[in-house]
Amino acid sequence: MGLADYFALDDHDTDVRTETLAGVTTFFAMSYIVLVNPATLGQAISIPGYTGDQVQQMLAVVTILSAFVATTVMALYANRPFAQAPGLGLNAFFAYTVVIGLGIPWQVALAAVFVEGIIFILLTAAGARKAIIRAFPEPVKLAVGAGIGGFLALIGLQEMGVVAADQATMVTLGQIATDPAATLAVAGLFFTLALYARGVPGSIVVGILGTTVAAYVIEWAGVVAPGTLTTSITGAQYDITPLAGAFVDGLVGAPAEGIDVFAFALIVFTFFFVDFFDTAGTLVGVGQVAGFLDEDGNFPDIDKPLMADAIGTTVGSMLGTSTVTTYIESATGVEEGGRTGLTALVVALLFLASLVVVPLAAIVPLYASHIALVVVGVIMLANVTDVAWDDMTYAIPAGLTVFVMPFTYNIGYGIAAGIVSYPVVKVAVGEYDEVSAGQWLLALAFVVYFYVRTSGTLAAAV
């Protein structure tokens, strides 16, 4: 059986050339994660006996392998043109909120991601995830991406030195003119945005690497002192044994860290909600671009891509990375005509080939790698254009979803705010009959979530 027959290319009115081009396009659009994921997780993961550079290179290998496995499953099992990798926003939640913010050992956080993946596999097999996706309110679904985009942009701008803390106003403009790293980061950001606007393939990667090269050239020319803009370069580190299987240490070691079953369950609960709605929004959003949705706005056979996503999360946690999810950048390949799993297979193979660039992960400064977060944040704002802003029962849940995420530095709060407010405003205008039982249950579940995250219950438990 050839590729055309296996992936049913004729049934989807496509061919090998089109699918290959689509796969290359998707890979270039999302390949920045090979640089950004290690930079993000590297701030939360430290391993005795290894330098920060070596840990970042381990994380780069793990990022690539998890993307390869997950996307291959999507290609061969689900036969959809969706690519997967450790998710932006989800890795930030793992690093900044759970590990750094709550002080949870990173091994325990990986264990929570593993348990979350197993739960997703079971729920997907039972058809529960599909039912829940069909239940959550449309305005929230349309606004989640923009909210996550705002959150990512804030993180990126902070690391670039554009946004700084201020005692009086909470945040303010950083000292860009007097901080060489901030100056270069801003220049790199505009360079990257210009490339993206012109439709240059791989513009984000080109922007990150271009900024990095500029940093080394500036130091080499003696404009600034060595070490001002760059980090040290070490030999390649492909041994991932300190990361692979660390989730087991997290499972058995949680009690020793004072984390009981209830506290661990709360961590899993939090990961679950953040990942669930991120994945659901991406699949539905990209599925809409690809023309996969039916006349009722539902995604036929969504269980298969959901299962691929669940397997990706589970395998990723076993290898040593945060939640693996379906990438919104898959839309770039879809726009090139990708309609089957062959597109995803091409992406998977390109990820595997990218193992040769692992040493680059350690030489890219954080301010350069975080340019991607700002660019992707801007791109993700496009999701709000489909919201019916002239209808207050749509505008309020969507607006709260978008605003609450970055302003509280928490993805889960934004999702919860939108879902809880939807039935409230619907009842207020007398449209209570438009709120389904499932939406009431979701709102109730998020009230519990709000309580857990704002009452100190989670922090007290851990």
Automatic annotation (TrEMBL):
The keyword Transmembrane applies. It holds the Pfam family Xan_ur_permease. It comes from the Archaea. The chain crosses the membrane at residues 58-78, 85-104, 140-157, 177-197, 204-223, 259-277, 342-364, 370-389, 396-420, 440-461. Keywords: Cell membrane, Membrane, Transmembrane, Transmembrane helix, Transport. It is a multi-pass membrane protein. GO terms for molecular function: purine nucleobase transmembrane transporter activity. One of its GO terms (cellular component) is plasma membrane. It is found in: Cell membrane. Belongs to the nucleobase:cation symporter-2 (NCS2) (TC 2.A.40) family. Azg-like subfamily. This is Xanthine/uracil permease family transport protein.
